[in-house]
Fold this sequence. Notes:
Layout: H1 3-22, H2 29-52, E1 54-56, H3 59-81, H4 86-97, H5 103-110, E2 121-124, E3 127-136, E4 141-151, E5 158-168, E6 178-182, E7 187-193, E8 202-208
Antiparallel strand pairs: 1-5, 2-3, 3-4, 4-5, 6-7, 7-8
Amino acid sequence: MDIPITITALALLTVAMIFMSSFWSRIPPRLRWLLIGSSAALIILHILFAATKWSTTSDHLNVVLKWGATAGYELLVLLFARVSPRWLTLPCAAILLAPLISASVLLPLSQLFLPNLQPVVPMGDSLFYEVLPWANPGGGNSGVEIFVYRRSPIVPYLRHQLQVIPFNNRECNTSEAVAISLPATAQYIGRCPYWPNQAAGTLDKVFPAR
């Protein structure tokens, strides 16, 4: 995840939204309403996906939707800043835009610049998972998170996130971490083999396949 590139892209997007809001009165009325409606729709869609843990089966499409929601949010906040009294709306707009530089926003947006898509590993019974690496350079630790999903039986292009299974390299060899479905018990496990200098075996984390 390239945070500097993400910050640069977000800064350019913010400049573009500021430019658009500055010349808002010169934009044709129909286009203005289209921009406002599209912004609101993308924000609502993003909130619904985040609240329900549903998303599309395309990681690239998901992150593009996040960027679209971010752009829409910035545009609506900047349009709010144009409302009188400006001495009140401008500081409020600055406060509303400040959270965009937080890690919880930047990290998901940075997935747009990942060089490769994460492979999807089927588990059977419409379950599958993806393994995403993470690192904490300051803490000297790294690992992976296994995202377990269930594909929608009605709309196959949608998926529901069931669980995030974290492993770190201090506890096991995360390069070989997997998720395994146990249909007979209606459960699945996240399994990570121990390092050779540890006791033989694996670190297992069990979850219900709800």
